[in-house]
Amino acid sequence: MEIREKHVTTRDELQxxxxxxxxxxxxxxxxxxxxxxxxxxxIVTAVNIGLIIxxxxxxxxxxxxSPAADGQGTIPSPLIGKAAxxxxxxxxxxxxxxxLSDLKGKMVILNFWGSWCAPCQQxxxxxxxxxxxxxxxxxxxxxxxxxxxxxxxxxxxxxxxxISYQNVQDTLNGNVGQDYGIRGYPETFFISAxxxxxxxxxxxxxxxxxxxxKKFGL
Length: 218
Prior knowledge:
By secondary structure, the chain is an alpha/beta fold. It is elongated and about 80 Å long. 39% of the residues lie in helices and 15% in strands.
């Protein structure tokens, strides 16, 4: 009878088996995986682009003049007749904190602006002229609130237009503008001496600013 010798697997053979390359996925499965990854990437990219466009539209679209009873650019606001939202912001002049409620007892005109905003650039000379010739003599506070930019851009704007009234800078996220329901720039709020919102306006020309000031005895 023939006796067959039993083969014993050696350690070298085991190492060769363990180091063998793994079985590759079928080509069709790999292709489907690549297509799925491309689809997910495309969707995420499209969503991000949409969000950027939406944000840019909100930031760089100037306030529009809504139909108003006096026809002078007033914008409806749920804040009218109510207490103006309080805030504490840093002064662009000296870095000190300025709190709106500390100004009670004086009429306050809040002007939301940005150096990147073309209508803000157009109305700046009219605001400065009104401040110099009318408002400061009557004890009215004209307070500019710069939005969505660094302080260097704001300082350059103030210097360019010779602005001498007070200006502060909103938070990075524009929290104060959100509290006031800002939808475009510039926007201006008239606040009474007892802290109530009297009116909300869109972009001013020298003529429409004059009409608004006269409306409040200024």
